Amino acid sequence: MAQSAQAESGPPTAEGPLKRVMGPKLLLLFVVGDILGTGVYALTGQVAGEVGGAAWLPFLVAFSVALLTACSYLELVTKYPRAAGAALYAHKAFGIHLVTFLVMFTVMSSGITSASAASSAFAANFTLGFGLAQDAGLLLAIALLFMGVVAAVNLRGVAEGVGLNVVLTLVELSGLLLVILIGMFAILGGQADFSRVIVFENSEGKSALLAVSAATSLAFFAMVGFEDSVNMAEEVKEPHRIFPRVMLTGLIITAIIYVLISIIAVAIVPVGKLADSATPLVTVVQTAAPGFPIGSLLPFISLFAVGNSALINMMMASRLIYGMSRQGVVPPVLSRVLPTRRTPVAAIAFTTLVSFALIIFISLDPKNPVVGLLGGTTSLLLLAVFAVVNVAVLVLRRDPVAHEHFRTLTVLPVIGAVVCVYLVLPWTSGRDPGQYAIALPLLGLGLVLWLATFLHRRARGYHEVDLDTTTIESVESGRD
User: Domain 19-473 classified CATH 1.20.1300.10?
Assistant: First the structure.
């Protein structure tokens, strides 16, 4: 699939500002933990609603798309082994200020939509776990209150460490293993109907290709997060050697878990019931082992998974907008910090208000699947970024470096860019139009902020700034 480039000399030996403490095991847990999260806990039913019993297929396709883009990230992160990300690669490849800004703002927007999706999933699992009514007004209130708590924690400041990531990863993984084990117990007891697993159904009358594309767009939300490991590059021992096998192994592990869960879910629960559930994996456990005490823990395990996703995403989004404000590309008011805690209060307020608006706007239509709509919007935004990364890796081939690094086959980023664009375009992806109705205004808001700041600086005679993408992108973290 890929090959290692031979270079003129060995890898750089000079230590950067961060200590290289992560070996392959910790990095693998980081990659797996970043990918696991809201997506599989909340969207398995909606994926099944798009394609019927063949719910495993979109997860498999999403894995293939992620694998193509992962190879591009691997070449770039081993070529430029610094804490960075998509904006840095776009900036190095194209050197266009507006393109770099749009990539950063798109990444930031994906964090807000992902966290907003997680808040709705949190509300659904909270009401189920505590036996409350699944009332639309109550779900909205819990989702908004949850986002308020996330903002408060964000304001106080959170020291995110690899140790905490390991703990939360094990909690999230335990929930998924619980589903698999109880599902296997039910299968061995003769409760499964595997004939449903190969049945392709689509209630909206879409063609098979459009239905799979639409379902893949949702399933891809469960696969994102692998790209965030590039931000650990300065803390990994021998990144040129460790990163390729660890990132690919992490993707394969999560893909196997997702495919197993989707097969078990459809075999145990009828597709219609699964698609209508806001907590599909809880439905699977309750159907497979009704009254089984340990099954009641799953909603609370899900709270950890989606709660952690929301917090990390809102931290990333607020720090990105704060960094852009500090560098004069969005209004300076967004760089204000709390005098005591030194946390970016204005940026946190801005990102939280945007998330409130998204949650309330979508909740006005009770027919809207909030998590699916926001999760699909997240994948839409990130697929657009991934298309840029796949092109950037080809452009940056003209920038050789004097150390060994991973080199993907040229055809892979080409295919990756084409597939990412295919899954972004409305007439090929089969996406819900509501996803574009969310994504485009968010990017429009970014352009308005950028233009207003640009004109203000021009009026005062300031020169255009050169974005320090390394500093800004180093705060990017998990999204799923």
Answer: no
